[in-house]
Amino acid sequence: MMTDPIEQEQHFVLDARDIAWHLRRWQSETAKCPFKDKLSWDKVWFPQGVESLIRALQDGTKLEPHQAFLIAFLETLKTPQALLNTFAARHRDLYYRQALGLTERPARPDRVAVSMQLAPQWREQLVAAGTLLDGGQDHEHTPQYYALDQDLLANAGQLTDLRWCQPAPNVPGASAGLARVVMSEQQPWPNAGVRLFATQDSEAASTNAEYPIATGRVLSLAALALAGGVRTLTLTFDEAVAVNQLQASVSGRGKWLALNNIDAASEPGTTAVFQLGADAPAFEASPGLDGWPGEGPFLKLLHMSAQPVPAIEKIEIAVSQPADVRFSTDEGLAKLTEKNYPFGQSPVIGSGVYLAAPDWGRWCGKKITMTLMPEWLDLPNVSFEKWYENYGVKLTNESFKIEASRGPQTTKKCSSKPLAIFDTKAGEANLEAPQAKPLEWEFGAPAHALPDSLDPRDGPYLRLELAEHDFLHQAYWTHMMNPPTDGTSQQVWNAPYTPQLKRAQLSYRTTYSLSKADAQFVLTPFGYVHDDDAQPVTARTLFLGFTGLKPGQDLDLWWQLKSPQRQALHWSYLRQDNVWCTLDSQVRDTTEGFSKSGLWHVVLPHDASTTASAMPRGRYWLACRFEDINSLLNDSSKSSDMPWLVGLCANAVTATRISGVDPLRVAGSVTRTVQGLDGIQGVIQRWNSEGGQTPETTSDFYRRAAKRLSHRDRALTWRDIKRLLLDRFPALYEVRVVDTAATQQLVVVPKPGEQDNGDPLKPMLNTTRLKAMQDDILGRASPWLNIELCNPKYRDILVNYTLVFRDGLNPEYGYAQVKKSLSRRYMPWGEAASTHPVTLGDTLDYYQLVAELQQLPWVTSVTDLKIGGGYKSITADGIEVLILKFPEPERATAQAPI
User: Fold this and answer.
1) Do the beta carbons of residue 770 and residue 760 sit within 8 Å?
2) With contact defined as beta carbons under 8 Å apart, do 115 and 651 qualify?
3) Whether residue 894 has pLDDT greater than 50
4) What is the superkingdom listed in this entry's lineage (predicted)?
5) Assign residue 60 a region: left if phi > 0, alpha if psi is -120 to 50, beta otherwise?
6) 56-103 confidence digits (pLDDT tens)
7) Tens of pLDDT along 834-868?
8) Structural domain boundaries of the chain?
């Protein structure tokens, strides 16, 4: 960047003649005056020559009397000469100070933002305005004190959380919004700060990066506590939904158990079916899971396309192959999965089994439909009518029945008539062998939970007993013990069939019609609310969480910001009923809508709550909604309208320097009050002081006045425009004119750290700041001026190279170090905390780059190098910045080095 001549201190000298000049002039004039016949007067005054006399003066050599007289005479001329040379400065001073009324700027004290730390056991303490803070000593060893600018009612409030959410980009397939946890108990504040609502942040770690907001709902229902088996949930919604986009999970063992969506219908519907296998853990209450209160268990539904999940009207719970069914015959405990005689080895009417399942005890007041599918051993291969034809009793396959009843307090039948145990195929009733059939009963669930016992008879049970006909064991043994004596031919009786189970499959189900009494919650970005309180994310919103604070106490925050523009903000607080109530009329905001660093004050309302479910519990929550919704940026190289939040602190107050002369106190310099205060444990200064300025020197004053007079606050020439921009906008490092006749365009380069985007290699200012600069210039220019301010153009240059490294060096490490070295050399502004600005119009010289690579100590030779796909240098235009891109390098082969 060229130096402005006005920036250099220049002194106008009217008479710059010294004694040597006068002596040479004296010699030239006296040489014209003759002395005697052949001499002139210069031989009298300068017998050894004028230069000899000049050297004698410089060396301090004694002079002849007449020469000393001449020197004394010339010395007397210095006083009027010096007075004459002050004429220009006195004239300038007269014009600047008297005619224009300008003067040097006085010293300006700096201001520091501090946080007061309350001592333990203190609820609050008033720190009065004017209280002195100790800032140490200045460079003259004078105490540097700061006086508080306003009263502060310090308390134990601390900022614990900072989060945000914002609507998703308006593109197909976008999520319901984006959210990020910047600071929490588990996530410390980022050292460099954060740009609000930036979708990509080079400073952000993967642990606190932005993530899509989940849309869904959670159902809390005690009936979901299913111990085991194949569990199937059939949900009926009050509106159609894309069923194949739903994900379901249930709480169990302190985590979420994912269910299988077995409904693959692509069309929207009102019914969804989810299932979990028998080998999965039990559905059970998991208090504290993801912050959910209560016993549960919980059913969580998420929509993969980020659409709202409608309310659940009805849920059918079905269990098959349960693992914890309690089963007993009249003879004792048994298992459904093992062989047993359910009616005994000599069954009679009334013999049977007892059944109970712990799940039934959690379905109080509901109807249970139970299905039993037995697998019988040794069934006759002919019908029972054929099998028992010699018994003298007409029986069919449907003659043997089971009747179900509930016990033990009261015996109540489960159906109006018994159910046939066996099935007969239609059309051949007298020929077909009996077959097992599923048996289904409907009964009311027990009124209370089942006891912890393996014997179903110890609690509510279902009794299944033989009804109407037994299997004629008694008739058979009577016949065998008393054969016929009438002389007729004796008929052979088949042995009666004894029912024996190989195994039996049990399943049961119930249906819940949900009402408002059944808790259904809708997910929010950081919590949940009841169905009626759900609101979509429609605006960028910042959330602040605080602990240690009490309703009715002051909340004083200091916001340390780097902001490109003012924001339209609306503040609110969270109430117990999950309602965000406005705070706008109570907020005192000196940041002027996050346009600059400043104090923010509010009194926490008395109905603020720490237990509302819309946000994580245990904190008081404030929300700041940004009114303007601009298109969301998915590219960190693009500029942002949002401020960069360096940090913020609670119990904040400002103090102004009243003694000492140093204009800056670095962070951590102010740590205590001058006089101890009860209840105040310490003072924390997190950031450097601001606004301090030493008295303006006379040379700086003249330079400032000359710059103002050069353009007179008018934008008439390109030089005026550039100087006005640099003077009025401290964030600018350089302004360059686009040298084309077709446009009136200026390229502005921000200073390091002043950009409005997240890419340090491509710093840019946002359009709002550029527009403000443009309007400022147009307000000082003629109506015919039409200029446009723009950011530099960044040109990506692909640099391919193949290198040979010294023996023993890992190539991956070598290439990584080369990339780092070249980036530091050609793009130094991309380094962390760099003060080097971007370079416009630079040249990437091919042979210089080869030399750079060869001079690296770990590089043996360069076998290939291409810049932008070719073997040539590249020069940027005057408004371009070259950005080196390094693809995956090719590994060196046996080639000759360049």
Assistant:
1) no
2) yes
3) no
4) Bacteria
5) left
6) 888 888 888 888 898 899 889 999 988 998 898 889 889 999 998 999
7) 778 888 888 999 999 999 999 999 899 999 999 98
8) 19-85, 111-156+652-684, 158-213+525-650, 216-322, 328-353+371-504, 712-790, 793-885
